[in-house]
Design goal:
The complex is a heterotetramer, with two copies of chain A (about 280 residues) and two copies of chain B (about 100 residues). With about 280 residues, chain A is of the alpha/beta class. Chain A has helices at about 1-10, 15-20, 25-35, 45-55, 90-100, 120-125, 135-150, 175-180, 190-195, 200-220, 270-275, and strands at about 35-40, 60-65, 105-110, 125-130, 150-160, 160-165, 225-230, 235-240. Chain B has one domain (about 1-95): Roll (Ubiquitin-like (UB roll)), CATH 3.10.20.30. In chain B, about 10% of the residues lie in helices and about 35% in strands. The N and C termini of chain B lie far apart (about 45 Å). Classes of the chains: A alpha/beta (about 280), B mainly beta (about 100). Bound molecules: zinc ion (2 copies). One zinc ion (ZN) binds near residues 174, 247, 250 and 253 of chain A.
Chain lengths: ~280, ~100, ~280, ~100
């Protein structure tokens, strides 16, 4: 705690506009500077999520992505410059975050989130941002967060629509499986790469994910648990709806869970979702 | 009996509903004599859906991955298919998004 | 138009995810690539607004700011890196935009928006983003857009709240003066520099401003004219309310306007707002 | 006569209203016998405002820079101070923001 205070003093100027804010203040800033957040995916959602978390001062920021930057990413994945095309997304994103804030710890994980590493990755952080782009990873990450009891800021964007909710928060916050116990058929799941997405749409959702992560790790404000924010960017419509609590009998997050610390690594997500994490 | 209901489609589901995100429909009651979300769903399938019904329903309910809201509340909290609806109520069918 | 098509072909891969989108497509992308947008302010709102407009492919992007990057900006102004501290904001932002998209034209205006240059600046672009931080500039920019008939994406953020609307659009869209004919007293206007702001809040609003600008210049979707989007980030609440049309007798945008192309330069904004554009 | 009205403050205005963004109040009618936004404003000033009334009102209306919404609609469209309100209506006072 003392070292935290010392570090915070050195950064007082950087964070002065947040510290001066009555609703936030030095206490919340200290919590943020002492927190660790994992961002899974350094694409359309992960770009602003990682950048805003780094800038606002999260103490340790992990970024997971196994892909390389492609030219077709640049229209929405603003954390990557043209010069980064061909390089690792996780490294490019980490470098951008360090350039914005060298006082925080940034960890690039150039690997795919997989049943074999998900729990270990998630357990290394206090909160997690789901900035992935496929059903396989979304179920896996939610399960890992349910098992490890880590709050998960889940965002998604496709076309001109976006969704945002917080999973696995507190005693009654549902997980992804509570809402969607059965996975949709792959043909019902659009991905950015085939269905298209308007650049600022994941930008809006990803920035909101950073905001929710800040709220969750500082305890300030009311996180979007048991609520879903829906964005219709074309209509300029945004509203929040009420969601169920944790489901009795959920295989991932209830007392009767069958997906556990021991079993998660061998769960067949490909069979369950009918898809691979890298499916187009 | 019937109820005048606002039916909304979102998350890409509008594509199989003639690309319209919003309909207002006079939904007739089912066997029970009351209008339920089940009746709304069947009405949407029979009168509004334009293609690929398997992307809307599976068996006697919506397909996995679709969330249903009655007046902006998750239908799990209101009684799912048996939720009664009345004039002016809204029923939203949202396809969950996975993109990023 | 032909040169536009040629340029677009060269950039087809970059914009492929927007072109493939049925609601957007090649036509809207061509319009965007042929459009010019001016962003006034390269701070908390202007950072994501400029970055997302550049990435999405606006053909010509102007950035106006006379300030230098300060350390206390970095927590929210993610377009600037630590290395840019002390340098011109407009230059730093322009360089970041060029790094993301070298195929567009980026123009840095290292000057303060003033009654003497506002009309000329605004007239050089098709649409304008108000990413400024004070009442003086907000009235001036709205007046210039009313006189020059340029749509204005007006965003604001303070503390944990944000506002967004589009002014001066079409026949019935109001201007800032239609809503607020009399300026508030300076002591009623918080600025980020004194009242504080949580980093992601201007990020959300600024990205939404980019989205509205894309809609306005492409004609796709329904812009937020005569509507105000209100963000309460702490509550996770966002909703849109209905606003008045253009006001009969508005001094800036009605048929009876007294602020005109000829008179704007000599209008005393300091007297009207009781403040300077650089007031803290 | 009186109306049970939801009164909301935003854009920083909540600071002079005891830092609460939302109140529900039984607002008594004014001289006309009906409850209007004028009555809501006066009620807010007399019962909810905790400091610096000059940041809320000027003369007989709200101070410049405050936008008033009645049921999410700009009061300019509903009749400004004379807009009638009834049980369940909401009146929002928003201070316009200038920060960025
Ligand atoms: Zn669960
Ligand atoms: Zn006007």
């Amino acid at each position: 705690m003392l070292s935290e205070v010392v570090r915070l003093r050195a950064e007082i100027e950087r964070y002065s506009r947040q510290i001066v804010l009555p609703a936030f203040g030095v206490e919340a800033q200290a919590k943020l500077c002492g927190a660790a957040v994992l961002v899974v995916g350094a694409g359309g959602l992960g770009s602003p999520a990682a950048l805003y978390l780094a800038a606002a001062g999260v103490g340790r920021l992990g970024i997971v992505d196994c892909d390389a930057v492609e030219r077709s990413n640049l229209h929405r994945q603003v954390i990557h410059s043209e010069a980064a095309v061909g390089g690792h997304k996780a490294l490019s994103a980490a470098a951008a975050c360090r350039a914005v804030n060298s006082s925080i710890q940034v960890e690039a994980h150039c690997c795919r989130l997989a049943p074999g590493n998900a729990l270990e990755l998630v357990r290394g952080y206090d909160a997690v941002v789901d900035a992935s782009d496929n059903a396989f990873t979304r179920y896996l990450l939610s399960d890992a967060c349910a098992v490890a009891r880590r709050p998960l800021m889940s965002g998604a964007a496709l076309g001109t629509d976006g969704h945002l909710t917080v999973y696995c928060l507190g005693d009654d916050g549902p997980c992804h499986r509570c809402l969607f116990p059965e996975a949709p058929r792959p043909e019902a799941c659009g991905r950015c790469s085939d269905a298209g997405v308007l650049g600022p749409v994941p930008g809006i959702i990803g920035t909101l994910q950073a905001m929710e992560a800040v709220k969750v790790v500082t305890g300030v404000g009311r996180p979007l648990s048991r609520r879903l924010l829906m964005l219709d960017a074309l209509q300029g419509r945004m509203h929040t709806v009420k969601l169920r609590a944790k489901m009795v009998g959920c295989v991932a997050c209830s007392a009767a869970a069958t997906i556990t610390s021991a079993s998660l690594a061998s769960y067949d997500y490909a069979a369950f979702t009918g898809a691979q994490p890298n499916d187009a | 009996m019937a109820a005048r209901v606002k039916i909304e489609l979102s998350g890409g589901l509008e594509i199989i509903f003639g690309n319209a995100k919003e309909y207002t429909a006079q939904v007739p009651s089912g066997a029970s004599g009351k209008v339920t979300v089940l009746d709304v769903m069947l009405y949407a399938r029979d009168h509004l859906l334009t293609e690929r019904p398997e992307l809307f329903m599976k068996g006697n309910s919506v397909r996995p991955g679709i969330l249903v809201l009655v007046n902006d509340v998750d239908w799990e909290l209101t009684g799912e298919l048996q939720t009664e609806v009345a004039d002016g109520d809204s029923v939203v069918f949202i396809s969950t998004l996975h993109g990023g």
